[in-house]
Amino acid sequence: MSNARVVLGIERLINEKVGLLRGRRVGLVCNQASVFPDTFAHAADVFRANSEVDLTTLFGPQHGIRGDVQYNMIETPHVRDRRTGLMVYSLYSETRIPTEEMLADVDDIVVDLQDVGCRIYTFIYTMANCMRAAAAHGKRVIVCDRPNPINGITVEGNVTETEFTSFVGQFEMPTRHGMTIGELARMFNEHWKIGCDLEVVEMQGWRREMWGDETGLPWILPSPNVPDVDTCIVFPATVHLEGTELSEGRGTTLPFFLNGAPFIDPYDWAMELRRFDLPGVAFREAYFQPTFCEFAGESCGGVQLHITDRDAFKPVITGIAMVKTAHDMYPDHFQWRQNAYEYEFDKNPFDVVCGTGKIRNAIESGSSLDSIKGAWKDDLANFRSARSQYLIYI
Q1: What's phi and psi for 390, nearest 5 deg?
Q2: Which residue, among 326, 259, 327, 324, has the nearest Cα to 294 in the 3D structure?
Q3: Superfamily of domain covering 9-218
Q4: Tens digit of each residue's pLDDT (9 = 90 or more) over 242-275
Q5: What CATH architecture applies to the domain 229-356?
Q6: In the chain, where the domains are located
């Protein structure tokens, strides 16, 4: 194995630790990004071809096991995988926790999913739900670790409040958590007391300061609108627009980089955003026309984000600034999202995205951006302290 790149947990499981699976019936949680980097072979195919692995069941997260479900909140059905012939149970369907029936032929649940480093992304909660099911039904969970593509140092944003937990925020975590999926599994299991039989297969060669394009690993889009590492960098910013009736760029070739609406004057919005002097980002006035999702077929005015210094860039407060300025500049047109977000029908969708109602209330009351950011300080410090004991790569 080359030392020039990070060695993934899934590689180490098969090449060094396959004994963990010997004599066990295996259910694999995976998607199109669950590949072996040297061959690009899919984990399900590798498991199926290995005589020491009894792969019995597949589980798919949001967007499906092959990543072909485009829109962000379309439930995926249970299907039979054409390649392996195995049953694929969707964990983004009428149930999001594996049932006892789904686990009937499973002793170990192996999780191999690529996270994007942001709390508002569902894969880590699919993992948590598998851990809950394992605890309830006497199964073991083996999490194969993968890098946090936006580094493992920076922690930013407000911490989800307990009364605002949802499928995009099951735990009291900040928007940008600075952890790997394996580290999160440990924290979920111990700090938030899921209490399952958990094994984390660590990576080799990953350092906390690494960005995804510094690992030597190929990037396989984990969901249809995250085509590269750069998109992961802006995602914690412009995902906030999903809680509004603004376009976050789905339906364009630059999802999460292009943002706006038909009623926005791009030159005025860009000028107002520049007044904040936000670090590491430039706003270019832009026009765009989505082919699907919000404002499909309509000409939108807005901005394109250009990241000029990713180490300095603070995506969360940048995203809040974008929502705040659109709200303040276009009071006759701006709306919070009208449809429920993640089926949380009793909560304001923007509050679900943020994990709190305080940010929306602050925007509506005209509070400054500095005061919004300042309110995160104590909770963020508490999270940093709690998180420290679950970090694997020091």
Answers
A1: -105, 0
A2: 259
A3: Uncharacterised protein PF07075, DUF1343 (3.40.50.12170)
A4: 999 999 999 999 999 999 999 999 999 999 999 9
A5: Alpha-Beta Complex (3.90)
A6: 9-218, 229-356
What's the rounded Cα separation, in Å, for the pair 170 and 232? 20
* CA-to-CA separations, 226 to 116, 195, 335, in angstroms, rounded: 9, 32, 26
Residue 186 pLDDT > 90: yes
| pTM more than 0.85 | yes
Q: 150 with 211: CB under 8 angstroms?
A: yes
Token pair recorded at residue 385? 């302290």
**What letter represents residue 374's amino acid?**
G
Supply the DSSP symbol for 145.
-
Residue 30 has φ and ψ, to the nearest 5°, of -155, 175
CA pair distance 233, 235, nearest whole angstrom: 6
Per the structure block, which two tokens stand in for 53? 């692995």
Secondary-structure breakdown of the chain: helix, strand, coil percentages, each rounded to the nearest 5: 30, 20, 50
Length of the chain: 394
